[in-house]
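Data card: per-record layout.
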Amino acid sequence: MKKLLFILSLLFTVLGMNQTGNAQDTGKGHKVVFQFVASDTLSQKSLVTNLRNLREGWPDAEVEVVFHGGGIAMVMTEKTRYASMLQDLVQKKNVKMVVCENTMRMQKVTKAELLPFVGTVPMAMAELIMKQEQGWAYLKAGL
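The structure for this 143-residue chain is written out next.
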């Protein structure tokens, strides 16, 4: 009897994992917003890696990156080392990228200086708060 219960328990565990695993494998229904403020290239590389890994594991999740502070250097045409990788994430992996307009004003950065596929939001903090209020998971990226 104990063996039968053990086998049934194991079977239900395996079946349960497969049933929930299918929904989780694509990330459908998940929404993730990243905050990025780091100007160093190690943090930038880490962000690209994390985004690629997330999109590989959860291709159907909604993903947005909010750049502000020193992080906007990563999406500035003349400063970034990652333009093609970021473009790939936006165009092929459906990652939305936005820059804080307050930061742009403070650093005297114009829209023309940003990578062409990057959008803007009035305030990074407001964007992050609204996303969290809408049920988005929040991650601070960078080292």
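Known properties of this structure: Helices lie at 2-26, 41-57, 83-91, 101-106, 124-133. The longest helix spans residues 2-26.

See the next section for split statistics.
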